[in-house]
Design goal:
alpha/beta, three-stranded parallel beta sheet, four-stranded mixed beta sheet, about 180 residues, 5 helices, Purple Acid Phosphatase, chain A, domain 2
Length: about 180
Amino acid sequence: MAFTRKFYVSDTHFGHESIIGNCNRPFASAPEMDRYMIDCWNSTVGDDDIVFHLGDFAFGDEEYVRYIFHSLKGRKVLILGNHDFRNNGSVLPWLLDLPWDKPPTPAMETSDGGKRVYLSHYAHRVWPGSHKGAYHFFGHSHGRIPSVGNSRDIGVDLPDVAFTPRTFQELTSGLPGLQTNPEG
């Protein structure tokens, strides 16, 4: 079995035509955007790797969302975003039916390189372990909310993410880091 690597990404919005103009994505259409993101994903992620997707995965009918999911390499974990829900607050059933590595959830914690990482679709001013050096990855804002301490937006449309799932090391290389605070 190959070594499992962890990757992180948010806000792919596969199949979402209007996201192109709303977030300055350089594509002529959603199908062009989707093909490009699938190619970027699959050129980076291996079959045994795990990708934490921080919400707003895909738009469209059940068949299209299923097609996108199965076109992407690796094991996938979904942190639910605002577009992953129906208007009544229930999760889109076709998302729940996909073979995620873990059941979709609003937030979760993992570790990477010996560091705690709190994952949520939404930016938090504080998060579990934030005063003890933990990191926080979020999406939703499409680059409009600045990093605070060890937090950052990991949306696909940020320049250093470039429509490609990224590793912890890639995403944290520019963060200032926090000193461990045994009191916090």
